[in-house]
Amino acid sequence: MVMRARLTLNWDPAAKIRDLPQAMGKAMEAAGRSWHTDVVPGHFEPGAAGRYNYQQRHRLYMIRKAKEKGHQKPLVWSGNMKAMVEGLVNFAVRGVNTVRCKVRMQGPRYLYQYRADLKQPDKSAEITRMTPAELDTVRRQVDENITAWMRQRTAPRVVEG
Questions:
Q1: Among 91, 60, 61, which Cα is nearest to 76's?
Q2: Which domain holds residue 29?
Q3: Residue 158 lies in a domain
Q4: Is residue 53 part of a domain?
Q5: CA-based nearest residue to 9, from 112, 134, 151
Q6: I need a labelling partner for 145 at 20 to 30 A (CA). Which of 16, 35, 76, 106 fits?
Q7: Number of alpha carbons in the 13 Å side-chain half-sphere of residue 157
Q8: What is the pLDDT of residues 25-63, one digit of tens each?
């Protein structure tokens, strides 16, 4: 998932522009962490297939899943993938002019194994989809975090002498 944002600099003009990449990096990492804890778990809840526009699963698969597992949760068969994706995660922030935060989650091998010619679902793409409202929330978090960090850097300091 790629998120593009336009920054409007609305803090003290005395702020040093050289601090901006660091502020952007911290804001992007915070947004990545928030996305992983708030948005990703929603992909495994009932109703997520419609909300995130998942590819329709085969009818026989759904019948077998209901009989064997007793549920119809999307992207969940045994729960292993859900546990792995929600568990161990790495955040890598890179860049100076263009700051990127890469959220690297672990998942089972079959998460990336699919064949489009057999109409198999791309589960990794389904897990990383966001609704427009979620995307707006993440963008707002990035903006608020950058602004707060830059204001903190430019806050007046009292020096007693």
A1: 61
A2: 17-153
A3: no
A4: yes
A5: 151
A6: 106
A7: 5
A8: 888 899 999 999 999 999 999 999 999 999 999 899 899
